[in-house]
Amino acid sequence: IGQEEIVPDLGGILNGDFSNGLFGWFTWYNDSQDVDVEYSVVDGEAVVNIIAQAAGEGGLDNNWWDVQIGQKSISFDKLESLKLIFTARAENPRKMMVNIQGGGLAQKAIDSHMVSLTTEDQTFEIEFFGKTAAVNAELQFALGTFHKVDGVPEGEQTVLGKVYLSDVKIVEGPELENQPPVITAPNVILRIDTAEFDLLSGVSVEDDRDILEIKDVSFEDITEGEKFSLPAKEGVYIIKYSVTDSEGLVGEATRAIVVKDPFVLPSFDEVAPNGAPVGWEFWGEDTHGGLEVSTENGEVTIEITNVDGGDLWHNQFKTLGLAAYSGSYVLEFTAKADAPRPVVVAMEGDGGVGILNLNVVKDLTENWETYTIEFEIENNAIYDNRNLQFWFGDMAGVEGYSAADNVLTKVYLKDVSITLKQD
Length: 423
What we know:
Order of helices and strands: EEEEEEEEEEEEEEEEEEEEEEEEEE
Number of helices: 0
Number of domains: 3
CATH superfamily of the largest domain: Galactose-binding domain-like
Radius of gyration: 30 Å
Structural class: mainly beta
CATH class of the largest domain: Mainly Beta
Largest sheet: 5 strands, antiparallel
Mean pLDDT: 96
């Protein structure tokens, strides 16, 4: 049969059994980034022989799409349920990424679907459909380096050798059952007196069939009592979001808008049943740590009962849920110890905007002393997940300290505060 007589199969697949060589298939590799590949067909299998594959050495920008084989004839109707089937193996275990994209699709019909290839043939099945029709979309099998892809074992990130692909076809998929839209609405924090905030900020919507946009989402303030308003007043406000798809299915979500000042620390005045101040926690790792905490007259006593290897943070006294806004701050606390020893003062939680962790070592003495740490926050957090921690774990790995500094003693702490630095 001549190549001119080949007609597309369902979904636009051409020559999926490779009986006519690579007719209907495109091949590409990123030769500008130290990649070298040979393509051939042997006994009804496409053979992708990866001879060289860089992985970012020398400033190169290598990615999983550096090596490709695929077709650009994939066509199907809107909401047509289909299934891609193919068989593949590799000389060496590795990953492969599969996509169907372009061709008028508003979103990928198959979006970076990663499969694991072994040395034995496996038949893969991937169900898909398009929210819009596709005409001459691209089916892409990608075999570049996966060194930037989370979760890929090191031995499967950059793999040379041959990959074998065969029996590629598209068949009818299962009947589609419409699902309600999904709204994602994470809680946010705002500084008191914030003048501008869009209640749709940070909200997203996704539907299995329809292309919905944020403008399709409605919202209602369901807070009991005073509602959210600008400039923002201190409090917690509950906003309900809803959206309806083309078949009348409704998706809903609620989120809290928390309006609070930065770094409001719980006092040491009220004591919880476990002995810690209300709003504070303590923890010692079962094997490597051990702490006991009591509170009286605004003063916390932390008895360090065990430090046996482990990590710095295996003994902790901490408070969570702090709001971090841009500015220069001063952390201050007063402390002493029955026997001199160090404490690591740490702050973690990126606020959803990449705020960096902080840890500073302070050497405690037998006398009450006030310790000061200055720090900067560059961006306003959108989540109140910053925390303040005092660590009493293993100091052996800290420069200038050793296991001899893991002193089992009582530490006394009071007057902990974080204030905005005054110019």
